[in-house]
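Can you give me the bound-state structure? Components:
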Amino acid sequence: MSWTDGAFTVSLVGVGGQGVLRAAAIVAHAAVSAGFDVKSSEIKGMSQRGGSVLSTVRFGAKVLSPVAGKADLVIATELLEGLRGLPLLARGGTLICDTSARIPPGAVLRREQEYPESLAAAAAANGVRLIALDADSLAREAGNPRTANSALLGAASALLPFSDDDWQHGLMSSVPPKTLESNMRALRLGRETSNQEASL
Amino acid sequence: MQPQLMSGNEAIAHGAVRAGGGFACGYPGTPSTEIVETAAKLEGIHAQWCVNEKVAMETAVGASLAGTRTVVTMKHVGLNVAMDPFMAVSLAGVNAGLVVVSADDPGMHSSQNEQDNRTLARFAKIPLLEPSDSQEAYDFMAEAFALSEEFDTPVMLRTTTRVSHGRGLVAAREPIAVEPRPYERQISKYVMVPANAKGRNHRALERLQELRARSEASALNVIEPGTMDFGIITSGVAYEYAKEAFPEAWILKLGFSNPLPYAKVLEFYGHVSKVAVVEELDPFIEEQVRAMGLPVIGKEAIPAEGELDQATVYRALAPHLAGGPAPRGPVSVPEPAQLAMAPEVDAKDLPVLPVRPPVLCPGCPHRGVFSTLRKRRMVPMGDIGCYTLGALAPLLALDTSLCMGASIGMMAGFNKALGRKAAVGVIGDSTFFHSGITALLDARYNEVEGLVVILDNRTTAMTGQQGHPGTGIHPDGSDGPAIDIVRVCLGIGVRCSTADVADYKALDKLIKDEIKTPGLGVIVVQSPCILLARPEKRTVEVVAENCNMCGLCLAIGCPAIAPGDDFISILENCIGCGLCADICNRAAILIEPAVAV
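Here's the bound-state model for the whole set.
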């Protein structure tokens, strides 16, 4: 599905407190800036307390449902949540994942379960294109360790029809004005890294 | 102005102000909370939190009688609390427009049930509007106020999580000028004694017929022509799913779904030979259509639990489109590929993934209370708030959680029935003010042997840090008088003491002593929510040679403690609350002393 003949669906997944809802708001506002109809949906409440978080943004000429059975692109701010997000994708979809972020849930801390490491294999077995980033390093390189999510959005920007102006609009809706520049730097670094990976 | 991206809740607040709304009140509850929060930021409307939904409903009726267009908001189960005034105001009617927003939670993302409150609009014989997205949430507020005043009735605007917390573009409309409606004394209308209520009840039944005629003609109830011999009757967000799953079907979209427009339904059946009702949760529309004697595909195909989405609707109805009575025209079923739902990843080779349930934050003061309560042989009766998470592993520190305020009454009944102090009630500060306070009065009156622990974290934490009577904080951030829980308890004549989780040993001893003391006692644990207090981070160190991995500290379920082979480790997300150091009996965890203030 592309943005010319229907709604394109981006799902953002991660752990409560990682800024997933804010990252989704940035995508939604960038899509508005690019002239698309936009709907998004998120779950608040219980899930904010360190639980799994899912937010969905859909854009296109005209968007009906705020949710979708399947996403075209999944952005994961944490490795385990990236694996959990894999079945959200349509075959041939793309998963962008911060593989440097690992937040073990209680059952792993208590050694009742293993933290899974097999993201690349699972993505390959399911026909999903994986773009794995070390978003923390990119954020530090951008000069602001709190811009890891912008680096992930940068990788997504290589796939989405939004200009840098649109992304700037998106960021302005959600980040403190004085961090706008470092967030844009992280976004560009994320895009460059993702482009390099794609050309390999 | 360019259309703005808004959540349904933000759109309801903006739509209320645009339509001359001047008063918004409610009690916080997911997914309704942001309506009052947004209204508090807007000009021209007063916004306030009320102590519970019943008081909010009564406050709203008062504001309407005073002549101000009013919106009162609550989650679906909140309306249960407000049912008494809700049913009565249906008969009494209103002065200025009164809109009751019921935000339902199909799928129970953050609720104890998924009741479908459309039934309660029908039960109360009042009009029901169901917006399907943010723009409609904005627009429908004007229609709701107008219907309320024209038909002298409260109006229910029912949203669901996907409408309230979904975002979409909202185009602002011209503000609506509202004529003043000064209060008029009308004892026969506003005093619901039997003699008056009989007349008002008769009027409510007549009103229902008039409302049905309006619903037949309403622009909110539209027939959208299709190109296939298949029709779908739908409302709310389910409309979006149905339209996306079957773009070629005829659709009867009911934005004004109670009273059901019978003639419009019959007209719709004239266009197609096969009709399905697509609605989330109960067969609310379906059963009324069946009662009209019309054949319909309903809950035998569409799930009656949880949320729908376009793929679910497609999969549920596609099999019903093949076979059956011969259609009068060509039936074309869209390819699933059009739904962004297939070909899909079938999660092949995915390992079994560890679940990630919500947990109490590192440093959360509730954890210390649960840790000491667990050591007592008491049945812990819980309540609703963040602290409900204390029921989950590994804490397993609460045996019950029923509804807002239930802990104290359940404790009272349990202890009375057994004739001894067997249960302890555990309740938060906001929940205590909501409906725990009346149960405490009752426990005192009935001379209950018992203990109540009030977790006074100085906020309504679970719904996102709203103020309440104990803090005096209003939704616009301003301060008012704060009510002291201890003085409330003492005023009732209940023994009351205070504790702080920071002094864990004193708390532990206080609970132990209080359990042994005859009569009814309250312990108010005055430890603020960690998200509110944001204390200075203190360093915690593990003395490896002292740790024998006994598991005492692991049992408090702190996400900042991890076991190792020989000793535990403290993770980066530790904020240094020191509870684990207090609990360790081998001096294996050392905490940097708190800076004296």
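A couple of observations. Confidence is low (pLDDT under 50) at residues 324-342 of chain B. Chain B touches chain A through 60 residues (CB under 8 Å).
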